[in-house]
Amino acid sequence: MNFAQIILPLAQPCYTFAVSHIPDLRVGEAVVVQFGKKSLYTGIVLSLHNDPPKSGKVKPVLKRLYDFPLLSDIQIRFWSWMAEYYISTIGEVMRVALPSLVKPHATTEELYKPYALPQERVLRLIAAPDSEAFAKLARRAPRRAELIVQLQEAGGELPRQLSTADAATISALVGAGIIEIFERDSAPQLLPITESALPVLSPEQNEALQAINRGLEARNVALLHGVTSSGKTEIYTHHIARALERGEDVLLLVPEISLTAQLVERMRRIFSDRVITYHSKLTATRRTQIYMDMLRAPSGNFIVGARSALFLPYRKLGLVIVDEEHDTSYKQSEPNPRYHGRDAAIMLANLHGAKAILGSATPSLESFNNAMAGKYAGVSLTTRYGGSLPPKIIISDTLRAVKRGERKSHFNKELLDRIADRLAAGEQIILFQNRRGYASYVECPRCGWTARCPHCNVTLSRHLKSGSLNCHYCGYSIPDPHFCPECKTSQIEAMGMGTERIEEQISQLFPTARVLRLDSDSAKSDSAYNHIISEFAAGNADILIGTQIVAKGLDFKDVTLIGILNADNLTNAPDFRAVERAWQMILQVAGRAGRRDRAGEVVVQTADPSHPVFSALSEHGYQHFASAQLKERQLFNYPPFCRLIRITLRHADAQQLANTASTLGQMLRSKFGSRVLGPVTPLIDRIRGELIVEIILKIETTTSFARARVTLTEQIDALRRDSDHKGVAIICNVDPM
Ligand code: ADP
Ligand code: ZN
Ligand code: ZN
Asked: Is 228 touching ligand 1 by the criterion CB < 6 Å?
């Protein structure tokens, strides 16, 4: 073939390069090309052809990088799907998909350093002694004779590491011309499973396992709706073991790997070293090594990973499990491709002909709807393992507490009494507040001044520990002024509450209680996070105060009380998913209580106790709630009954932004009519000094979504070519969360 379309790790289309000088180049191979004035890039061959491009001169590919393709056909199809579905370039997919060391980029050939495969030293027998010489050797130097036997048994060659010979023995044999040493790319090996027994399933778990298997005979996806602590993880292990026995690759996808240390440890206990974790916090070297090893090793790998693990080179993927499938952190918020890890996992499984299991105690309405419609096999598990009782949920009316004089600081008496009670009994408590910091904003009671971020249109949050006011969007921070900088007369007041303030109030109300706080301030690093978790798990604290991090997959055996301090800021969030999220959040936090032998209690403080979300917290309420929510979504035409694309425009200049947004709005209206909403100014309309405007596209499920995406792309491309609109950033988010 004379020409190749090459994927470059850029937000650009693919370009054509000449390749006739590279023999037998294959699709998926990595090559070095020159692009731009002086840059060398690693590119991937997307396709090969003989048609010279109509215009421009074609540069040749400089060289091929490895003697094997970096991508399989399935990976190329997966990348192409992702670029097309999430309105990105395939180069942007390449940017997130390949570990950095396999796609070096440099300005000169000397600086361009491709990843070198790890080498291993190998011993080879070149001139075996005859039997007489051997007998002599065995007497005089038994170690040398032993190595010769080892090599003969291994068929003449043996990696140095696997031989037991010492250095002196080896160099003596090399000196005598009997063996030689050479280097080669080390061949990755599948680590053995010293499989300790799989957990024995309870009758209910076993039934769920069988139901999933039956469901997956006819369908490709199963949704396992199992209440917290029902043992979903144990059920997964049986599916994983079966797939590995068949020699298939397995991917267990988790929302945030750093929050799943307990899960990884449980998997290691069963599948030992076969478990490979993969996520963006690993070093570039480690990620590259895993990628290259998988590329060259046989199938049968077991990956536990975050969404970037979808891009590993699976040879024969047999099973994908998406744990906590409802978790919104599966969605990549930036940069492009803004893909949803769960949805992409289902696509990847399809491309491999693999099965997918989605698991959650609180399934997303999208997945619930798919199960109801028969697209997914729906399986539910309603009992906790070991018969532990579900937590008792108490809805505590904040307004009534105020009226009766039964509220202190941010706590209703119903909660305070229980905290005192549990502290006396030596049991543990978790308090959940969905805001970090001390106060969400500060205000002068006299002149009304509030501290705002100069770069983002938001109030600054007060942080006590650091003595500062911080912006949670851009990190802008100023020392806490204490006195109003406007009228200079009055002390500013903290408004709204964050975890730090709860911590302060608890210490005043219960001075002897030992308190820990878990939020993104106190757990900045994984080690800080692990430290807090293990301290609490070891019983070195009585109360854990935290943001939604405390809702994620933790298992504390002595927690018997959970307080949700303000459920209303969950339900009142300005988002059509707010109620669904509130329900998920409350149940996930509640799931941390009473996990073994003791039933737990959950006190939910709210000013709106008749809100339907609260009746859905019981198992029986869920079906009713989910159906009612879905009806409402249908009525107001929201997902899953339509598809959304959010188009965000950003620019520093208000006039330019308004002009471009209204032009794009008109262009889209001429194609999509009333399916276009906006341009509208979002709640937070300025971040890092840039103004923001949004346009929403609502596409009904009965028309072609693919065609809509093409039309949208054409319109945006046309706008970008217009010099009046240069410089305005336009970002598409398909299925925004
Ligand atoms: P889920 O993921 O559904 O919240 P887990 O898998 O974390 O539930 O199980 C909750 C607890 O019960 C864990 O401590 C787990 O080890 C234990 N458990 C569940 N099923 C079994 C089983 N079949 N054998 C032994 N322990 C189990
Ligand atoms: Zn800011
Ligand atoms: Zn003032």
From this structure: yes
